[in-house]
């Protein structure tokens, strides 16, 4: 992210250093990243999504394998939207210190509550296999959206094989599972669920921004040392133009993602539109930039050892996760009819 101040620059530098090594869940907890948006009275930092976005971008840059998307973006974001209560507060505090990994099983249609039991199915749930607690968005008997917290062991969780090996997603199934509690949203339930989906879309756009930045940096560095015909390939006009196109796409992505992060952090009325703009453009641009990076690396770019395939696959999965580009553009177009 840009334009958020010196504090974000320091957070970005620390994140880049930490993610350059082996960043286990305990290290993320010690760094305070899991509790960035957790209220201070629950041992969190009391920060906003703007700070989480900085971490997300650096995770994309490092192609980090963590449960941050499920636990912090979805888990903490959902818990913060609920009415305060003992169970909800305890789970927020446990998430902040890393002792519990939550995630949210957003399904379409959502889960349903019948009596004291909940049933339903959700696919592509981030970090479902790693989660200890899964929050099920469900409709109660009156059709009102609520959240049902369930221990992961009580649900069916099957890992889904996807193109991106740096991310873990799964299918979550509830077959008349006992609902120990029902947590209600602090505000309008339908609007709260939309905000959670928008958070997830912007989070993936932040990740794609980091992927694109990493691929541009690596390509420029390679073009400066790789020689053909006795000169660096970066001196050739075709390579210069390709890198310039990548830089323009990255700059446009950054502007859209920055605007979306501000809207989400400020709970802006136009956050949904900003999220769709950022998700549709930045995720598509990351795929194009990673693909161009592979081409400009020549034969080595297509090898397993180069590692570029990891970024290309991550970018491709980001493009499909939490709404396709076509779906988000359709959503934007609907505002004009």
TrEMBL record:
User: What residues does the Acyl-CoA dehydrogenase/oxidase N-terminal domain cover?
Assistant: 24-77
Which superkingdom, per the lineage? Bacteria
Q: Which Pfam family, any one of them, does this sequence belong to? A: Acyl-CoA_dh_1
**InterPro entries listed in its UniProt record:** AcylCo_DH-like_C (IPR036250), AcylCo_DH/oxidase_C (IPR009075), AcylCoA_DH/ox_N (IPR013786), AcylCoA_DH/ox_N_sf (IPR037069), AcylCoA_DH/oxidase_NM_dom_sf (IPR009100)
* Cofactor field: FAD
Per the database record, which ranges form the Acyl-CoA dehydrogenase/oxidase C-terminal domain?
A: 201-336
Report keywords, A-Z. Answer: FAD, Flavoprotein, Oxidoreductase
| PANTHER family given in the database record | ACYL-COA DEHYDROGENASE (PTHR43884), ACYL-COA DEHYDROGENASE FADE28 (PTHR43884:SF20)
Family the UniProt entry places it in:
Belongs to the acyl-CoA dehydrogenase family.
Provide the protein name: Acyl-CoA/acyl-ACP dehydrogenase
Species annotation:
Amycolatopsis acididurans
What does the organism's lineage look like at the top? Answer: Bacteria, Bacillati, Actinomycetota, Actinomycetes, Pseudonocardiales
């Amino acid at each position: 992210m840009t334009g958020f101040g010196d504090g974000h620059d320091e957070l970005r530098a620390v994140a880049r250093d930490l993610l350059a090594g082996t960043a286990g869940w305990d290290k993320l907890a010690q760094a305070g990243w899991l509790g960035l948006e957790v209220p201070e009275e629950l041992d969190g930092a009391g920060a906003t999504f703007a700070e989480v976005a900085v971490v997300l971008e650096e995770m994309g840059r490092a192609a980090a394998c963590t449960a941050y998307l499920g636990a912090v973006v979805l888990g903490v974001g959902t818990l913060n939207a609920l009415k305060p209560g003992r169970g909800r507060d305890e789970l927020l505090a446990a998430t902040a210190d890393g002792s519990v990994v939550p995630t949210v099983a957003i399904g379409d249609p959502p889960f349903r509550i019948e009596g004291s039991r909940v049933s339903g199915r959700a696919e592509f749930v981030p970090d479902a296999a790693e989660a200890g607690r899964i929050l099920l968005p469900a409709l109660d008997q009156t059709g009102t959206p609520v959240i049902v917290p369930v221990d992961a062991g009580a649900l069916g969780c099957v890992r889904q094989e996807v193109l991106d090996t740096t991310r873990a997603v799964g299918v979550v199934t509830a077959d008349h599972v006992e609902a120990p509690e029902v947590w209600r949203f602090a505000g309008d339930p339908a609007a709260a669920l939309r905000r959670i989906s928008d958070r997830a879309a912007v989070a993936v756009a932040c990740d794609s921004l980091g992927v694109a930045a990493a691929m541009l940096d690596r390509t420029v560095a390679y073009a400066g040392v790789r020689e053909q015909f006795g000169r660096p390939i970066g001196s050739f006009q075709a390579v210069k133009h390709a890198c310039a196109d990548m830089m323009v796409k990255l700059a446009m992505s950054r502007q859209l993602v920055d605007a979306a992060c501000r809207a989400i952090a400020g709970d802006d009325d136009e956050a949904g539109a900003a999220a769709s703009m950022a998700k549709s453009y930045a995720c598509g641009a990351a795929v194009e930039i990673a693909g161009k990076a592979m081409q400009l690396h020549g034969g080595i770019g297509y090898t397993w050892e180069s590692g570029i395939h990891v970024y290309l696959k991550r970018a491709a999965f980001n493009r499909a996760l939490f709404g396709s580009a076509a779906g988000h553009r359709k959503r934007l177009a609907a505002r004009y009819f």
